[in-house]
Amino acid sequence: MAIPDFQSLMLPLLKIASDGQEHGISECHDALIEQFGLSEEEVRELLPSGRQTRFRNRIGWALTHLKKAGLLEGIGRGKFRITQRGLETLKENPSHVDVKYLERFPEFREFRGSEENNGSGKEPPIEEPLPPEERLELVYRELTRELAQELLERVKGCSPEFFERLVLELLVRMGYGGSVRDAAQRIGRTGDGGIDGVIKEDILGLDVLCIQAKRWQGSVGVSVVREFAGSLLERKARKGVLITTSSFTVDAREYAKGIGNIVLIDGEKLAELMIEYGVGV
């Protein structure tokens, strides 16, 4: 079963509180998991921010809306109980309680800042089934995706020398190579056996990474990865990074996963890393 949206949690939460006793979020969390038959994977699913589980976040937003409508009241950190208005609402035996239902209460309209509260008489907008934090996350991901596509197109159009320099700067920002100047003494100068450069794995140079970075047009196949792996053996290098502006075939990914010492970075991942570490943006 899919994780219920926060509006679907409003009536169940109100019913849990119908006994007039104090209740906590953790208690409701466990009861709702059982009621909706959620799997362990669904319960553990995190928001894109990674700061909170998606289900607990939706419980929090459902409780916030019920409190703003005056159906529940907070009585301490993480504790709440039903109000007289909440009990009266349950007596009406509603089939569901959602944002549109809560618009009948003036405190909630004020909280929402709806046009109805301003006397326009217009039908209030129907809330999307996601809480604000999740909607913001979706907008952020879409903007990031568009930026990533734009970055990748720019990278594909640059010169090979600029691309090598960009890869170098990215790896240094990620903590490899010590400094751009130190790393630049080696990157792009070996040019043997399918290896475009060597960069320090740490600032002291106790270990190194062999790098191959190319702006391939089509998908990179297993033969390229196999050749790169052979080059690592010839140099007695333990680790390598293979970067492309395109993609890798399934066979290539499986081969790299099997040998375990080569990391594959395709165009999509490259753009994500550039955004994350502020390179080229």
From TrEMBL:
Pfam families: Mrr_cat (PF04471), Mrr_N (PF14338). Residues 112-131 are annotated as: Disordered. It comes from the Bacteria. This is Restriction system protein. One of its GO terms (molecular function) is DNA binding. It comes from Desulfofundulus thermosubterraneus DSM 16057. Transmembrane segments: none annotated. Residues 157-274 form the Restriction endonuclease type IV Mrr domain. GO terms for biological process: DNA restriction-modification system. InterPro entries: Mrr-like_N_dom, Restrct_endonuc-II-like, Restrct_endonuc_IV_Mrr, tRNA_endonuc-like_dom_sf, Type_IV_Methyl-Rstrct_Enzyme. Residues 6-91 form the Restriction system protein Mrr-like N-terminal domain.
